[in-house]
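Good morning,

Both structures are done.
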Amino acid sequence: MPEVQAVKDLDKVKIVGYLLEKTYGQQIADIWNIGLNLALRISDLLSIKFSDIQGDRLILREGKTGKLATIKLNEKARVIIERIRSERPDHVYLFQSYRNRWSFNQSPKPLSRRYVSKAISMIGEEVGLELGTHSMRKTRGYHLYKNTNDLARVMKMLRHSSEAVTLRYIGITQEDVDRDFVELEL
């Protein structure tokens, strides 16, 4: 299985969101847009309940690490969340599966990771990128690093403990470092 990439071109970030909406619907496009803005692992993103959102903050315990993530929601994330909340006031999960809405004795469940992964992967093929569910998180980290050149800040946002892991994760290669040396002349 190939390693998924960050989307380094901001126009392609928008194209992916557009194609997800046109091909798979608003809910999958919302996952992409919220995922880009929260930089969570897909399992944590799909597990968000409306009760985890307190004012302008998302507070949840990460499944993989057990760390408490307290994320201030930006305007784009708040607008999407409020739209979903108003359209689906009976939902427990932000990205709740519609599959069991006709089953009366079924408890609510979020969308499956497999479905989201397939949708993002298929759109990645269309735009010529190796995309997957981690691409949202990697893309956010990559663009934060490119805008700030502050690796410590990216590490904190992604809740990583190693610079090497963070650089590899966001796709900063030796080629990128070489280009920085050539382009920045003092």
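Second structure follows.
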Amino acid sequence: MKALTLSLALTAGLLLQAPAQADTLLVERVQSEQGQALPARGQSMRQVEATFGAPQHKHAPVAGPNDTKHNPPITRWVYPNFSVYFEHSHVIDAVANKASPEEIGPKPVQ
């Protein structure tokens, strides 16, 4: 029992000496950037490009096997601060990109 108490006391002492470190969460940054304009759901590719300019990268469409009604082609365009996802040629979502590799958020799809 004495060994357990001593062990816990030493662990607590080491933790108190460790420097505090804070991670920037993607959710926190997104909330702070709420004023940033993003493409609206339903906009066409042409409307997005007219409003936001050409994307840095246009990924090729990816579709599920066989039935495109249930597995439509999804295309992703990458801009400096956000990515836009299209189903066929219309926006289904726009999300903020990670600011740095250290930012905690969703893992990229490989």
